From TrEMBL:
Pfam families: DUF3500
Superkingdom of the source species: Bacteria
Protein name, per record: DUF3500 domain-containing protein
InterPro entries, per database record: DUF3500 (IPR021889)
Organism for this UniProt entry: Arenibacter arenosicollis
Organismal lineage: Bacteria, Pseudomonadati, Bacteroidota, Flavobacteriia, Flavobacteriales
Amino acid sequence: MTLKKIISTSLILLFFGVLPAQNVLQKANTFINSLSEEIKSKTLFNLEDSERFNMNYVPIPRAGATFHDFNETQKTAALDLLRASLSEEGFRKSQEIMELEKVLRIIENNDADKMPDGRPRRDPLNYHFCIFGNPSKDKPWGWRFEGHHLSLNFTSTDGIISSSTPTFFGTNPGIVRSTEYKGKEVLKKEAELGFSLLHSMTPEQLKTVVFTDVAPHDIVTTTDRKVKQVEQLGISYKALSKAQKKTFMELLDLYMNNYEHEFATGFRDKINKAGIENLTFAWAGSLKPGKGHYFRIQGPTLLIEYDNTQNDANHVHTVVRDLTNDYGEDLLKAHYAKDHKH
């Protein structure tokens, strides 16, 4: 059975309610129990291991087992864990980003470009699974799914997903111009809503929204474990018109809707408590598609970045950072403090 068939079959099962979408703990243990001791040695790490913070989104050697290591049962279990950790929309995007590796292999036509292990650099199976700690209701643990243009980081405390950030999605090509995938644009809605909000601004508002006419070459937070001080720029939510506020919230919800439902609900509550009126929207670069552009939504607890500058502005990087709880660090501190008292 191919990876594509496994994905399709699992989606059918999910639709009919056979695969509970939120039971991450069960899915994690099913996945671990399916692995041989050899594969476990590649996959399992201590929760405190520094590897947990080794985020990256370019095609480099990584820790963790990949689909190349798995038999069909293990592939299915791995994908079930990923699906349970995301919304259906987030899962779809992750699979389509992996498929873009096939496009790059065709359009780059460079068979000599290999990873150190001899496999092609562009490889839809070269995505890595790492489990940190022992999946349990009582003790914190985490896991990561990562490869080219994907870095999905999850932490569980008290039996639920307590952190799903940093969350990185990327696409190259942003819009596929050739091959059988021509016209595919995985992050299309992000681009459309960003430009829609920008183009709704009055000339006076644009003076506040656009902070430079040259977009940064990449997201400014890159792979930092902790987000360094990023100046909050742009127009505040409270300065928007009613129609602009609606578009702003559609864009924010688009990002929140990538997450598993219960986590997304908690993340939204956290943003609301910090004050929607304290969020800002800022833009850099071209005001039209086709040239380098960048936007961000920022507030006391949240930073969303979207950058499309590379490959003639047809190469997207976008990330969500929880400024207080990336990698679950804030909730882990609270958990350990509670345990210490007991």
